[in-house]
């Protein structure tokens, strides 16, 4: 199973498309403890366009391979694409399969996968190494996680700290940080809520990619794994699944 410890995310939202390896003075070299990840924008879905977009990623990063290449979405969501993609996620997947076969993408995956799409992916020549989905204590995505575990696919969570409730679901305050159960557990261990949530997720076999612009929070999030949650604390967090009203559109 693919489990890098650190990830350098060069998705188009993280490194803007105009940013190049030259301007950032970045030259990617992976190691046992670090992994590079990039994504194909949905407007680049299609066999030829996915191959071209991948080539551009390599050029910008001045590397000849990436550890992980993901399809950012199986389709264009409203407002995401400036042009019609040349093809579908299946065409893009075919391109990623080929790049994987050539050793240019060591692991391949896709984001925002529901059970139907996962079943379709399992029928492809190469099943995904990684599925990256929204997962936090109130949205635990248990069916997809279980299937990934059965199939030996690494489940990677985005927005583990609850950002989707604010960005996407119309909540004014992030309900993860204000939750009393999580606050009590954090207080018990003299930790932050973020550390408790990240610890819980990793103990559930989930790969995490928390984001923070604040170096102090980045450091604190990194030090989330040197304490052990009691079984009843793990269970109490598991039980938060579905506790919030999922107002707003489905992802
Ligand atoms: N595949 C997809 O469609 C998709 C969608 C969304 C995100 N992602 C990926 O997932 C990564 C993380 O997701 P995300 O940014 O949506 O959500 P997240 O990790 O759940 O939360 C990030 C938010 O939490 C805050 N935060 C982080 N650590 C904190 C701490 N210790 N205490 C208090 N607040 C803290 C951050 O604020 P500060 O910056 O102020 O600390 C930021 O507002 C992103 O980098 C992106 O690569 C992927």
UniProtKB/TrEMBL annotation:
Q: Where is the NADP-dependent oxidoreductase domain?
A: 41-241
So which domain of life are we looking at? Eukaryota
Q: Under which name does UniProt file this protein?
A: Glyoxal reductase (GR) (Methylglyoxal reductase)
Per the UniProt entry, what species is this protein from, by scientific name? Durusdinium trenchii
Recall the taxonomic lineage recorded for the source organism. Answer: Eukaryota, Sar, Alveolata, Dinophyceae, Suessiales
């Amino acid at each position: 199973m693919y489990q890098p410890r650190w990830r350098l995310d060069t998705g188009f939202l993280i490194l803007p498309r105009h940013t190049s390896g030259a301007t950032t003075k970045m030259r990617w070299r992976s190691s046992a403890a670090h992994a590079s990840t990039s994504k194909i924008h949905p407007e680049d879905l299609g066999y030829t366009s996915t191959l071209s977009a991948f080539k551009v990623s390599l050029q910008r990063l001045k590397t000849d391979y990436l550890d992980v290449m993901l399809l950012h979405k199986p389709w264009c969501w409203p407002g995401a694409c400036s042009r019609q993609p040349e093809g579908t996620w299946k065409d893009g997947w075919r391109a990623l399969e080929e790049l994987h076969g050539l050793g240019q993408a060591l692991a391949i995956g896709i984001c925002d996968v529901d059970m139907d799409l996962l079943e379709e992916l399992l029928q492809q020549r190469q099943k995904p190494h990684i599925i990256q989905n929204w997962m936090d204590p109130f949205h635990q995505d248990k069916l997809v996680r279980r299937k990934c575990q059965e199939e030996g696919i690494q489940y990677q969570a985005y927005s583990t700290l609850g950002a989707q409730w604010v960005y996407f679901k119309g909540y004014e305050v992030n309900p993860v940080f204000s939750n009393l159960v999580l606050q009590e557990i954090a207080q018990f261990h003299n930790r932050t809520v973020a550390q408790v949530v990240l610890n819980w997720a990793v103990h559930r076999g989930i790969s995490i990619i928390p984001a923070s612009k604040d170096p102090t929070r980045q450091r604190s999030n990194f030090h989330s794994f040197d304490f052990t949650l009691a079984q009843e604390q793990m269970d109490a967090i598991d039980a938060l699944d579905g506790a919030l009203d999922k107002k707003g559109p489905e992802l």
